[in-house]
Each structure stands twice: as structure tokens, then as C-alpha cells.
């Protein structure tokens, strides 16, 4: 796999979180989880339902950072992404089998337990996987998205 350079139009083509989360079901996500487990990538790879947070200017990209107890995604000038030590943390594959970054993060973008309110108000978007006692795929929901007026807040679920 070769990762292409960031292109704003790839990000803009993503659906919003509510629409996109409805496009896949648990069985489809588990099939991807099985592949991840079969290749022993469960410590390094998770499945994220890539989605558009809001419209960006041509020179912007989404950057996820830790702010207090929340992971927050906000638009940042493309020129500032590299200077912030950010790296692609969400990638998507086009119909032409080309991989593009659609989101960036920093090493401080860590997970934490979430409150019941965050769990019930969020839309699940990030999944991890483990093998059950009988070898079956066990799916964990790690994060969900909760749009807010101040931006698009990503909260940890599970």
C-alpha cells in the first residue's frame, strides 16, 4: 500500500458521521476485524468509519488533539500540520484502490474511559478487535463522535 498525498477533495467527498455510520453493519465490521486478527495486527490497526466533520477550506486539514479529557478535531492550515508533529491517523481508500489521509493526529491523542452521557450521545466510529475464548471475533467500540457547536468533539467509547 502506498499512501498518497493529502487532497482536500478526498476529505470533502466523505459523508457526515450520521449518514456514514449507517452504511455499514456489525457483521461487515467484524469481517474486517477477522482479517486484522488473522494477520495479528490487532495491536496496531483499528477500523474507523471515516467521515466529514464539516467543510474545510482548500488549505485546511482535520487535526485531532487532546483537550482536557476530550479528543477534539478541528480544521488546521495544511502548512501547520507538519510543524505540529502530526501524522495521518485516518486514511481512506478510493474506488480506484488509492489510499489517502483524511485526518491527522498527534501522539497526545490518547484514549480514556468515557462517561455514560458521552456513550449515549455519541455515534460509534472506531472499532478494535480481539479473539474470544472460542476464536470468534470480539468487537470493541473505542470511540464515538459527538458534534458540538464549538467544533467536532471525538469522545472515547468503551
From TrEMBL:
Domain of life, per lineage: Eukaryota
Stated name of the protein: Uncharacterized protein
Originating species: Acrobeloides nanus
Amino acid at each position: 500500500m502506498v499512501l498518497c498525498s493529502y487532497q482536500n477533495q478526498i476529505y470533502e467527498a466523505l459523508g457526515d458521521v450520521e449518514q456514514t455510520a449507517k452504511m455499514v453493519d456489525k457483521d461487515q465490521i467484524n469481517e474486517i476485524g477477522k482479517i486484522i486478527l488473522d494477520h495479528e495486527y490487532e495491536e496496531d490497526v483499528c477500523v474507523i468509519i471515516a467521515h466529514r466533520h464539516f467543510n474545510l477550506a482548500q488549505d485546511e486539514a482535520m487535526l485531532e488533539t487532546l483537550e482536557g479529557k476530550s479528543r477534539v478535531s478541528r480544521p488546521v492550515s495544511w502548512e501547520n500540520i507538519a510543524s505540529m508533529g502530526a501524522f495521518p491517523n485516518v486514511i481512506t481508500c478510493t474506488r480506484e484502490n488509492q489510499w489517502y489521509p483524511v485526518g491527522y493526529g498527534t501522539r497526545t491523542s490518547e484514549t480514556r474511559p468515557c462517561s455514560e452521557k458521552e456513550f449515549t450521545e455519541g455515534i460509534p466510529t472506531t472499532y478494535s478487535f480481539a479473539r474470544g475464548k472460542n476464536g470468534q471475533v470480539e468487537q470493541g467500540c473505542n470511540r464515538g463522535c459527538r458534534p458540538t457547536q464549538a467544533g467536532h468533539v471525538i469522545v472515547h467509547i468503551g
